[in-house]
Design a protein that fits this description.
Elements (H helix, E strand, L loop, with lengths): L2 H31 L3 H8 L3 H29 L1 H21 L3 H33 L4 H24 L4 H19 L21 H29 L10 H15 L1 H8 L1 H21 L3 H15 L2 H11 L5 H29 L2 H19 L5
Membrane topology: Multi-pass membrane protein
Subcellular location: Membrane
InterPro entries: MFS, MFS_dom, MFS_trans_sf, MFS_Transporter
């Protein structure tokens, strides 16, 4: 092998590692917010309904930033957009730990959500180019690193909070780690200009609409874990706030491990059976979380939710890629938008339901919705 060939291969591997870091960073940041929710709720004096409303700011920031990120990446390249958006996230995270009022918390969440959403969009553009150059499938591995970032972020934040460090200091440490990883990775991110003519959004129709609705529900369940798992453990099962992040940490670890082996599982079961089995397992996990009499059983429930949800969304995206009702280039953006709406706006809906009844009832509704995913997917011929 020539020196030039070895140099090219080394550069390619470095670029791939940097792309994995691009997925790891927003996963870490998003998960770092989950253990902070009970502290933010207590500090700002919010009830469940008001907290759900404030959480909409995170979703609004993400959804508004995604189309802008695509346009900016087309004009300036992925590297510049990812650097700018990750700086927004790194700066906003400590503000989430000190915001003294609902208004300031909502503003910090909007900036934080805008940075995460824009980075989510741009890192996928980066990943497509790196995967194409590699000549082999790599997208599942890249997305697994988002889950790995989530697991590491939840575990690190929960561990530091369990040491009774103040939340603002914990967030500063998290931001410092992200800044170091950003600095190490940014020289190897692509600066190619993305295609500017691709549509950002298409109204789904037919089978694509059905897949999109199922994606909305699946992402809603994941959003429930992110924004409500710590609150549920603290307020319903009376777990100390410093340990309330254990629920999301368990969920994230289970989902990450399952995604790393998920392609083989779906290949053996088939997409429809994998979705049905996953929905049954996840719904059972929600039931166990809701009615568990002790923390170990509740944590087992969170693990079952992660195990069940892990392969539902990838299988649904595969179905969207194989359907014939809409071109793939239009179908995938449409269901992606619906999916993000579920993970971002869904927790707010849970807050409104909890305000009108209880968090227990809201979690039961999510379990029922997951069962509907499994029962409905078999009728989607894709």
């Amino acid at each position: 092998m020539s020196t030039l060939t070895r140099s090219v291969l080394a550069g390619t591997r470095t670029e791939q590692h940097a792309t994995r870091a691009a997925f790891f960073l927003p996963g870490f940041a998003t998960a770092a917010w989950a253990p902070l929710v009970p502290f933010a709720k207590s500090r700002t004096g919010l009830d469940e309904g008001s907290l759900g409303l404030v959480l909409l700011c995170l979703g609004a920031g993400s959804l508004l930033s995604m189309p802008l990120a695509g346009m900016l990446a087309a004009r300036h390249g992925c590297r510049a957009v990812m650097i700018a958006t990750l700086i927004m996230v790194i700066a906003a995270l400590p503000l989430l730990a000190i915001a003294p009022s609902p208004w300031t918390l909502g503003l910090a969440l909007f900036v934080f959500g805008a940075g995460v959403g824009a980075c989510d969009c741009t890192m996928n553009i980066q990943a497509v180019m790196v995967e194409r150059d590699s000549g082999r499938p790599m997208m599942s591995g890249f997305h697994a690193f988002y889950s790995i970032g989530g697991a590491v972020g939840a575990a690190a934040m929960t561990a530091l909070l369990a040491l009774h460090l103040p939340p603002w200091l914990v967030c500063l440490l998290g931001s410092a780690v992200m800044a170091a990883l950003l600095a190490a990775s940014l020289p190897f991110w692509r600066n190619d200009k993305a295609a500017s003519g691709a549509p950002v959004f298409a109204v789904p129709q037919g089978v694509v609409l059905g897949i999109g609705v199922l994606c909305f529900v699946a992402f809603l369940a994941e959003g429930a874990m992110l924004d409500w798992s710590a609150v549920f453990l603290h307020e319903v099962q009376h777990v100390d706030p410093s340990r309330a992040g254990l629920g999301f940490m368990t969920f994230a670890i289970a989902m990450t491990v399952t995604r790393l082996v998920g392609d083989g599982m779906v290949a053996r079961l088939g997409r429809h059976r994998a979705i049905l089995l996953g929905s049954l397992v996840a719904a059972g996990g929600f039931a166990l979380v809701t009615f568990a009499p002790a923390l170990p059983l509740a944590l087992l429930g969170y693990a079952l939710i992660g195990l069940g949800c892990a392969n539902i969304v990838p299988a649904l995206f595969s179905m969207a890629g194989n359907q014939k009702a809409m071109p793939e280039s239009l179908a995938i953006p449409a269901i992606t938008t619906l999916g993000y709406a579920g993970v971002l706006a869904g927790p707010a809906l849970i807050g409104f339901v909890a305000q009108g009844s209880s968090l227990v009832f809201a979690f039961c509704l999510v379990a029922a919705a997951l069962l509907l995913i499994g029962l409905s997917a078999r009728w989607l011929k894709a």
